[in-house]
């Protein structure tokens, strides 16, 4: 199993709770990018010492400054001499810019390694820790009066996304614990920082904004630790399209791999993938501290048919099973004078505006065995009477089930009330469905599998114990078929060019068990004839599943290693 090097004991403190911050090249003009961090640190009440460094000034923004870098922690070599733990590099023009930039990046890494300094960046917008009033960034979102602390840690390969999340979260009363812009990840990368957040007492969930995955082993190991600690890791990753992959390379030098492989990687390590940016900060309340659900059955209870339909339609399109009212619910509401109709929704329109009816419906659904998750939809009363509309949801005990709320109108007061109560609530039906879809089923067995790479060469299948059909190689098409090779002589499968054209494949991280292999076979539409489509004879799908499960790929070579602060950590070839 991949592992993460043990961090230096003071790394988390230096990164999230520094006592002294030196600003190299600090500007006396607070409006400039190089002047913003000093102003933001003061604005948001940083309690530690701030030391500006400017070669031409004795004072910077009315604070005594140092002229020479050697006088205080400065450039990387000077940082090493002064015992600085972490240096953040804002400048760009390194590995993301080409070969010369990559050489320069390797040079600063070598200096840092020799001196035991950990690096964030280059091309990083710094660290923001609302929980500790640390605003070490040039991001203009820090112009806001206050940073609301929260329980979500953020690691982002994009610096501007930090501001996006802070501003959107603030409008909803959603705050963050620590936010780190990793940039090019020349040293400290996503995986190692996630690992620090797993042990952080101020963080309950981790949100990732990824353009690529540079160190899959490190992130995978950290995600498994997070899962064991009950801290969900939620990722929004670019690269669904060719254009997105190209932008990732040009922006931060990240290599964005094939999206199906990324999905398989996320599933393997229990990382929940969000398809919408809003889901990234709305979803943690749904899954933080929550055990995985039993299945994919969802009940939608609503006081607005149209609003609920927008969620239900998305849920169905994402492959979840909508469950209508069961007998226990019908009897419970019948005693309150409510007769439910048919269909896949628990539609309480008109009658559901009575608190006791809506509360009874929620209680019955959450306590029963008919569904695994409940989506509570609130209509116009969410805007006009927020104190009444969301009260049943605020008071509901979800128990072992996922409970999500969608407020159909624009109703910031209702959303804020639900957020304050710790209930998962969503502003759009798309984000609500996205989060419920991503909420994890039981992945315990999946997480116990070992990750390995596929050798892929068919000539090794026999050595791996995969049963093979008898075959011979003919030097040319004109050679006669040997007499000992009985007909039929084809092997039938959905492959070749059409597999790429239609994208009709199932991808999992190998190895898989026989049950997972059968699920993969069922997912490939092109194998329908082997499943007995329209009365055709069925193929031996169990044998095919055994063949898939028997593949045991060899481990890949270890990644390039460098030494820093006395600990080894991997650097992918793409970052030098």
Description:
The chain has 576 residues and is of the alpha/beta class. 35% of the residues lie in helices and 15% in strands. The protein has a seven-stranded mixed sheet with strand order 8-7-10-9-11-12-13, with helices on both faces. Strands 14, 15, 16, 17, 18 and 19 form a six-stranded parallel sheet that branches. It has a two-stranded parallel sheet with strand order 1-2. The radius of gyration is 28 Å and the shape is flat.
What is the CATH domain class of the largest domain? Answer: Alpha Beta
User: Counting H and I runs of at least 4 residues, what is the number of helices?
Assistant: 23
Biggest beta sheet summary? 7 strands, mixed
What is Rg? 28 Å
CATH homologous superfamily descriptor of the largest domain = Succinyl-CoA synthetase domains
What is the 3D shape? flat
Q: Uncertain spans, ≥5 residues at pLDDT below 50?
A: 1-5, 443-465, 556-576
Overall mean confidence score, pLDDT: 82
Name the strands of the widest sheet in spatial order: 8-7-10-9-11-12-13
The total of beta strands comes to 21
SS content category: alpha/beta
Domain tally: 2
> In the CATH hierarchy, what is the architecture of the largest domain at level 2?
3-Layer(aba) Sandwich
């Amino acid at each position: 199993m991949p592992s993460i090097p043990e961090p230096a004991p003071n790394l988390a403190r230096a990164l999230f709770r520094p006592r002294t911050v030196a600003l190299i090249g600090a500007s006396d003009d607070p409006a400039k990018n190089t002047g913003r961090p000093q102003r933001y640190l003061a604005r948001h009440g940083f309690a530690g010492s701030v030391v500006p460094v400017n070669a031409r000034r004795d004072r910077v923004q009315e604070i005594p400054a140092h002229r020479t870098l050697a006088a205080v922690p400065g450039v990387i070599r000077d940082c090493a001499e002064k015992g600085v733990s972490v240096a953040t590099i804002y400048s760009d023009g390194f590995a993301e810019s080409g070969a010369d930039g990559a050489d320069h990046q390797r040079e600063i890494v070598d200096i840092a390694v020799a001196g035991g300094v950990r690096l964030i960046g280059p091309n990083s917008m710094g660290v923001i820790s609302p929980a500790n009033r640390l605003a070490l960034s040039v991001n203009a979102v820090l112009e806001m009066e206050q940073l609301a602390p929260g329980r979500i840690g953020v690691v982002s390969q994009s610096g501007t996304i930090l501001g996006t999340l802070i501003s959107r979260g603030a409008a909803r009363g959603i705050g963050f614990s620590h936010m780190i812009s990793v940039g090019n990840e020349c040293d400290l990368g996503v995986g190692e920082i996630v690992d620090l957040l797993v042990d952080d007492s101020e963080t309950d969930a981790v949100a990732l904004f990824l353009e690529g995955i540079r160190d899959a082993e490190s992130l995978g190991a950290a995600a498994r630790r997070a899962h064991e600690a009950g801290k969900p890791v939620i990722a929004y990753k670019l690269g669904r399209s060719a254009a997105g992959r190209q932008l990732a390379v040009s922006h931060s030098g990240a290599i964005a791999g094939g999206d199906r492989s990324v999905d398989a990687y996320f599933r393997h390590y229990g990382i929940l993938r969000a398809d919408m940016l809003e889901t990234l900060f709305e979803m943690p309340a749904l899954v933080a501290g929550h055990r995985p659900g039993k299945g994919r059955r969802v009940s939608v209870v609503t006081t607005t048919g149209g609003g609920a339909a927008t969620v239900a339609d998305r849920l169905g399109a994402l492959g979840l099973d909508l469950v209508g009212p069961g007998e226990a619910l019908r009897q419970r509401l019948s005693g309150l004078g409510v007769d439910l109709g048919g269909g896949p929704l628990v539609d309480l329109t008109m009658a559901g505006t009575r608190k006791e009816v809506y509360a009874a419906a929620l209680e019955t659904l959450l306590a029963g065995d008919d569904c695994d998750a409940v989506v509570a939809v609130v209509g116009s009363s969410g805007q006009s009477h927020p104190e009444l509309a969301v009260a049943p949801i605020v008071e509901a005990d979800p128990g072992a089930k996922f409970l999500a709320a969608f407020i159909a109108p624009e109703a910031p007061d209702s959303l804020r009330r639900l957020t304050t109560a710790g209930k998962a609530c969503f502003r759009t039906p798309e984000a609500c469905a996205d989060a419920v879809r991503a909420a994890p089923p039981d992945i315990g067995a999946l997480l116990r599998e070992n990750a390995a790479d596929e050798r892929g060469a068919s000539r090794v299948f026999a050595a791996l114990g995969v049963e093979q059909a008898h075959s011979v190689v003919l030097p040319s098409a004109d050679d006669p078929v040997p007499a000992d090779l009985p007909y039929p002589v084809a092997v039938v499968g959905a492959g070749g060019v059409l597999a790429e054209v239609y994208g009709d494949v199932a991808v999992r991280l190998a190895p898989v068990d026989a049950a997972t292999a059968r699920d993969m076979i069922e997912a490939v539409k092109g194998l329908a004839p082997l499943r007995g489509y329209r009365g055709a004879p069925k193929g031996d799908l169990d044998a095919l599943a055994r063949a898939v499960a028997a593949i045991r790929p060899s481990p890949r070579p270890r990644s390039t290693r460098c030494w820093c602060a006395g600990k080894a950590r991997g650097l992918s070839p793409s970052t030098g």
